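Reposting from the mailing list since nobody answered there.

I have sequence plus structure tokens for a pair of proteins and want to know whether others read the tokens the same way I do. The first protein:
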Amino acid sequence: MFDTELLKTTLQEVADIKDIPCGLISSVVIDSRKAVKGSLFFAFRGENDDGHRYIGELLEKGVYCVGDEGDHDSEMFIKVPDVLEFLSLLAKKRRSLYRGKVIALTGSNGKTTTREFLTTFLSLSGKTVYRSWSNLNNHIGLPLVILNLPMNIDYMVLEMGMNHKGEIKKLSEIAHPDYSVITNIGSAHIGNFKSQQDLADAKLELFEGTGGVIVADISNRYVKEWIDKNKERSNKIAVYQQDSFKSRYNEFKEYPEYLVDNLLTAAEVVKVVEGKAEKLNEVLKKSKIPEMRGETKQVGERKFIVDCYNANPDSMLRSIAGFYKKAIEEGDENICMVLGSMFELGELSKKMHQELVNYLKTLKLLKRAFLIGSEFEKIKHCFLNEKRVVFLGNIKDVVPLLPETGLFLLKGSRSNRLEEIFELLE
């Protein structure tokens, strides 16, 4: 909750001072269905709807409403020139009043699981923690998280996502993190950038924009180069090497290697923040790892490893390699994969999908790979003689061809909706 005085002072910077009735804001929302009396609703325009349509009925319920159009006869209606800018400014003001510590993280892969591990580590050490939830990690989501923050919390853990240059910079200006970490720098969203270096620079905006402590993986060459160029900031840089994590994979054999990397990255951050990071196995068991990130699902005689929340070339190769290695070690003979197309790769899409198929061809014990979606369809003609590789347009087309028994990896970008296979099988 926060007092409407914060609204009034923030309005002074963007519009005429408005006589808002005194009271507490119970929650900040952008979904009109979640607004209750005392909520603060921000009206945004989406592809299919416009939040301004609901302002009239929400005002009648006693909801404060922010919009950039309309002349509602209510002192609870706040008209501003730009709804997003006002949301960002209000969140920035609220962040300035928070006396706890903020930990911010971004990266090409593993942001959400690392966030959850961080939260569990800190909670087990007796700290109160508030974190980003769902996929609220962008220019709208992150301010919403901050504006709903309980002010008596020890730590706020914020996940930051990006598709384009400049986005992390803006989020950092709002969050003003005390500690910052980049989980990794891969090729996610590479199609939105001129080069891998440009993509890396966009991630590194998190380090550029912080006055706090940087927790840096110097195994990553882009991070290492940034550290070398910013030696004057060395008193606020704590380094670790993710490459060294490989020596500890055997301690957590039942988990995918990339998940262990996320756990140990979180541990490195907690060591800097709290001085120590303990109970790693307990953290693994107690953390709320989101669905479709390495979970196991049994359907009849078929065992699925479900890792289809999202995908890019780096995470795809890592997931496939880890799945295949573990299957071989455990003596599985019927190894199959259902892989969805990767998106936002731009001109590199064809090349990266071809490289992935060529990699699959090297996996000698792989029985069959079912390749789903438009990006795989575009390279189908290059692999017409590959009997172990099946190109299909839709996940629905897989079901009749799927072996009755075996171990299956389900991996691909979110828009493929690979998880629908379970409804189809049932």
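The second protein, same order (residues first, tokens after):
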Amino acid sequence: MCNNEECAAYLKKNEACARLMQELWKKWKSYGRIAGSVTLRNATEAEQRAIGGIIGKTFPEDTVKVTFREFEQGLQKSRFAPVDMKAVLENYFAGALYTNQEQKARKQRAKEEFFEKLLSGFEGGGENKTAAFCWIREMQRRKKYGFQILAKEFGKDPKEAELLAQNTGRALNRIEEMEKEECFLAVFAADISGNPHYFDRGTAAGQLLTHAVCFQQNTDVPQSAYEWRECMQSAGIVADNIASMVHVFGVRLETADGFHPAYEAFYHRNEPYVLTAENLRSVTGAKAARNTVYVVENEMVFLHLTENVKDRDVSIVCTSGQLRVAAIQLLDHLAESGALIRYSGDLDPAGMDIADRLWQRYGSALCLWRMGPDDYRRSVSNESLSGRQLARLKRLKNEELRRTAELVQKEGLAGYQENLLGELMGDVMLQN
């Protein structure tokens, strides 16, 4: 009769054996049998006595080295014999002992069963499979379309991962049913999960839904906030359009019923106004004065320019740094109208990256404004740029920006629009 439980209880009570037992547990997980040796450095006298007493050996120094086989044979000669070493370890640690390979196989089987359960839940009736079923099937087959996100969440908590996949699958089916209807993201999320922020862009659910929508529409995963909003919009899900805004001066907005009366008032009063993406939903076009719009990155520059051109027929837009949906939508309308977009941003890696992306989007409809090497020399500040920041300059595609980037890399300093106020103002005045 084995005395595995009694043996494990004895070892657990003897704290001097704790370090050794931890190492033996690891050895079994690696080999799946009694194999290998353990070295305990800086062993206490208690550890030396406890281990030496079991294997019948003394340790002259504070390093204890013992093979797994030696320890097992020592236990077989004790009052607990006969013992099963695996059972002793399982009783000691109060859990089933699997090798690393077995554990990996168990996790793989659990993951496969997880996906099979999801597929069964979304299969639906008849030959026509639901959108969620097709997404989960391809996600499992190709290890794409959000597979890594779901696998990561499964590793943390399988039940939460199941709820995440179920909610996202329900959302995808709902999107398919909506056809051309639109729904606000918060309302949509609350209806699916009870939480209006459930599918926000930064959440695991939001990321998974984005991948699911991209699968459904056969498009690439969005890389920016604007692309994400476009992706959701194409699926009929409208994100928070109030937080996305752009500052505007001298631009007339068209609707299906003619010029927008509210913004016409600002136009005729020569006052700047704030335009949100929500306001832009009813806008069908935009007109710039003299078919040219000056676009600046910095709010202070925008205010300085608009304060000094109130008696002039000129159009100015401020993007406030990183491009938001409202800014892109307005610039899209202006480009479609045939207007020339003259864009000026900070001459640092972030500002030049924005300018480069706008140039790639609008092509010949956009002209870089005061962003050449000479402009950099006049705008340069004392603010140093890190190597990580400078590395972003290598991604630039526009030739003029690349020439400026060479100088920025050489100097290692940022250039700012505020240092070019005189030149920017002069250019605007020349138009009139």
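Reply #1 (J.P.):
I read it the same way you do. The radius of gyration is 33 Å.
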